[in-house]
Automatic annotation (TrEMBL):
Domain EAL: 24-277
Protein name: EAL domain-containing protein
Residues of the full protein shown: 411 to 701 of 705
UniProt source species: Massilia norwichensis
Amino acid sequence: AAKDNGRHTFSVFLPESARLIKERLQLRQEVFSALERRQFVLFYQPQISAANGAVVGAEALLRWDHPRLGVIAPGAFLSMLEDTPAITAVGAWVCEEACRQAREWELLGYQLQMAVNVSPRQLTDENLPLLLKNLVAHYGLDTRCIKLEVTESMLTQDIGKAATVLRSLEDEGFRIALDDFGTGYSNLSYLRQFPITTIKIDRSFVEQIDEDQRCLDIVIGVIAFAKSLKLAVICEGIETEAQASAIRSTECDVLQGYLIGKPMRAGEFQALLLAQRSTPQQADPGCGQAG
Ligand code: C2E
Ligand code: MG
Ligand code: MG
Ligand code: MG
């Protein structure tokens, strides 16, 4: 019976994993033509002011609108592109699409801060500042409205090049956020070496903030430290009212998470903006002021 069982388990397991492997190989083949097939799309997640709840920003998050499989999150395909030249083209497309959308919303009367995630390869690409400079000029945007999100691990890879790229972005007036803060070594010297303007406290801290006093104390401490360096602070991954109210008790500037809004298509995000317009006490502070 044990033998039968083993064989049974084996025969169930193999086709399933074979199917997954096949699916992954197929995705890998398809992902390189997804850009020219116009299958990539940006979703936008709202960021609100802790002070008054107004939507002050959007984080652009890449999605693959797959004809067979539906919407695919970057965790399933980004790494396939990461070490290939294709990531440069996809990254450039993300920058352009985010700028185009920021302009569209600006023309509707919403000057948002548009956050764009940068890949390690983009961060060491000396053409990135010029690409972005040309885009904001083309779309008539204020450079302060575009914020590049980088992670600590990206900064450690090629420190010299990354610093050069970030400094020229800073010279142009772009904002730079340190994403997932607290998950790496949180080597504080990076905050001195690189022109960071914002830190995004990772959702692993936010997760238990309402239950674990130490989590709250850490967040309060990190924020105090960030403020002393005149950095703006965003807390990401807020999923519950209890987490939101714990974070509102701190000096955090901007809130982001499923509670406030999941990443959504541009049309849905726009509906959110328009709904806000009918709430008079929530003035639009513009991108110069928060986060
Ligand atoms: P990230 O920049 O740290 O983005 C936050 C991720 O957390 C997003 O996942 C978002 O959907 C998710 N998230 C937001 N709020 C909550 C919440 O309340 N709870 C939970 N559980 N999750 C939340 P997503 O969209 O799957 O993106 C994953 C990562 O992929 C991003 O992490 C970013 O590093 C990368 N990424 C996304 N778009 C791009 C892009 O256009 N270019 C590059 N290079 N990387 C991107
Ligand atoms: Mg991010
Ligand atoms: Mg993050
Ligand atoms: Mg991340």
